[in-house]
Prior knowledge:
This protein is an alpha/beta fold. Helices cover 35% and strands 13% of the residues. The chain has 20 helices and 16 strands. The longest helix has 30 residues, at 418-447. The protein is globular.
Amino acid sequence: IAPSRLGTQRRQPRALPSLDPTAWFQRCLVNSCHETAHKRRRRTMTTFISDVELARSSKVLMVGAGGIGCELLKTLALCGFEDIEMIDLDTIDVSNLNRQFLFRKRHVGMSKAQVARESVLKFRPSANIIAHYGNVKEPRFDVDFLRRFDVVLNGLDNLEARKHVNRLCLAAEVPLVESGTTGYLGQVTVHVRGETACFECSPKPVPKSHPICTLRDTPDKPIHCIAYATDLLFPRLFSAQSDGKSDLDEEDAVKLSSFTRKEGEAEAEFAVRVFDYVFRHKIANLLLDKEEMWEKRTRPEPLPSFMELVPEGAVAAAAGSDPSLATLTACKALTGLGDPQKVWSVADAARVFVSSAARILSRATTGGGSTDKFDKDDALAVEFVTATALLRSCNYHISPQSLFDAKGMAGNIVHAVATTNAIVGGLIVIEASKVLRAGVAKKQMTINGGGNGDGGSEGGVHPPNTPSAYKYTFVKQHKSNNRLLEPIDPDGPNVKCVVCGSARLELVCDVDTMTLGCLIDDVLKKKIGLNAPEIEAPNTTLYLQDNDLDKEEIATYANNRSTILRHLPGGGVPSGTELAVSDFTQKFDFKLLVTHKAAEGWDKEEEPEGFTLRGDQAKVAAAADDEGTGDGTEGGAGGAAEADDAEDVDDLVIMEDGPNEGAGSAAETGGKRKRGDDDGGEDHGAAKAGRLSE
C-alpha cells in the first residue's frame, strides 16, 4: 500500500461490549480456551508421519506368494515394512522360475511362502516375516486372525479364495488391496468397508462353458479335449466317491464296468481297460453307428488297441524306471519325455496315460489320498490330462498339444509377464500406504475428539462429495491418452451387493427335482463361494456343519442333503420360501428366496445347470400368494413366483465361478449341460475389466 494511503487504511477502534465486566471476562476466557483447544487439535492432526515410520509401525498380511506375491514381498521389504505375514498353499514348480525371482531351481517342490521369506531375509534381515504354508480358507485364518492386521494385500490366482478373503476383511473391518495380472494387463483396486465398493460389488466375467454332449461325443477344439479330461474322465476315475454320478456313466459303460476298478485288479490293467474303452471301443461300436451325428462333422477314428501301440505291455509301460509307482512322475519314469514343449507320439501318450493313471491310483491306495478334482499344480494330474487330450485329439483329428500348452489350457493360465507383476506389486504398496495413512488419521481424530472416524462428515477421512485418495489403477498393454497406467476413482458401496449391501438373492429352480445337496454344492459353494454354508428354513433347520453335532444330528442333515427341496422337513421348501443362509467362517449371512420353475421350462442348452441366480427381487409376498395359503400346492398359472420366463436380471452381483479351487459338479438335470472353464492364471478378471481401453 502506498505511504500516502496508509492513514486511510487504519482500522477504527472497536467499541467495548455492552456487558458488565464479569460477564465480559467470562466470555473472553471461554473463547480463549476454545481457540487454544482448536489450535492444539489442528497441530495434532497435522503431525507428519514419514513413509518409513508408517511402514515400520504397520502390520501387513499378504495372501499369495506367487507371481505378484514375490514382487510384492520384495517391494514391501525395500520400502521399510518390517512386520509382514503371508499365506500360500502352493509349492514351487519349475515353470515358476522365469518370473518368480525369489525362487531358484533348488527350491522346486518347497513351500512358496517359506522360501520367499528366506530369500527376502537375506537382504532385509531385520524384517519380521512370518510365512504360513496353508490354505487361506482354513479355520485358523478366521476373522479374529485378520483383525490383527492394518491392511490385507491379495495376490491370489483363484476367484473363490478372493471372495473368501473379501468377506473376511468386511467382517473384520480391515481394508483390502486386491490385484491381478494377465499377460501385459493388470489392475490394483482398494476395498474399504463403508467407503468403497467391496470386491464382489461388481459382476465378474463369466467363464466359458461347453455342452456335455460336445465334450463327451463331438469335440472339435483342443479345449474340448482338455475339458473332457479335467471335468469328466479325471474325477470319474480318481474321485473318492466312486459311486458318484457321472456324465460318462452311459448304459454301455455301466454294463461293461468300464470306469469301475475290479477287486484285485492292478492299477495298470485297469488303466488299459479304460484306454481301450474310451479311445477305441466307444468310438468304433457306438458313435460311428450314429450316421446322422456325422453328416456335418468329420467322423472320428478309433485308435489301435493298447497292446498294438505299446508292445511291452501295461505293467512295464506303467513302471518305466520306477516300479514302485511312487517316486517319479510318469514323464520322469519313461525315457525321452523330458521336454515339456514337445508333442508326444500316440504311443508315448498311451504310455503316459497308463503310467500316470496307475501312479495316481497307487498314491490313493498307499495313503497319499484321493484326487477328487484336477489340480494344475499336480504333475501327475497334468500328465494324465495331457495324455488323455492328445489321444482324444487323434480320435477326432484335432491338433494335439504339448505338456506345456495343455497345462496352460487346463489351468486357464495366461502365462504371466514379470514386468507386469513388478508394476502391480509397486502399485499395491502405493495404495496400501494410502490406506495406512488414512487409518492413522482416523485414529488421531478419534483420540483428539475430532470425529467418529467412520468416513462421515464428522471427522471422517473422506467426507461426502469429496474425491477419494484411493485409486483403481489399470495396467494396459497399449497406450491410451499417452498413458499405460490408467487410475480412476473407486466406486462407492453397492446397495444391491449381497455381500456388503442389503440385497437378497433369488434362486429360480425346480423344487420338485433339486435336492438340498445340489443347493449346497452347486449354488451356495460353487456359485456364491461359501465355505461352510448353513441353512435355516422358516420352520426348521435344514443343514448345519458337523462341528459339535451328535451322530443323530449328523445323520439327519446327511439325509436332508439327498432330499428333494419340496419334501424336506418342516413343510419343505416350496416356491416363495425365504431361506436364511449363513457361513460362520466368513461371518456372512443373507436371505435366499426360492422360486419354482418346472424342469420342462428350462432351455438345457442355454441354462444347462437347471437353475438361475438373480438379484434382489421383492417377491416373497407374491410368491406366498401363488403358493397357496395352507395346502402347499402350486398357485395359479402365471403367478409371479413361478417365474415362467425366468428372465436373468443383471442386478445380480455374484459372478459365476469356475471349477478351479473348489468348484463342484454341475447340477444333475439331464440332457445337455455345460461345464465352466477353470478360472485360473495370474488373474481371474478385474472388477472393472470393462474399463480397460485396449
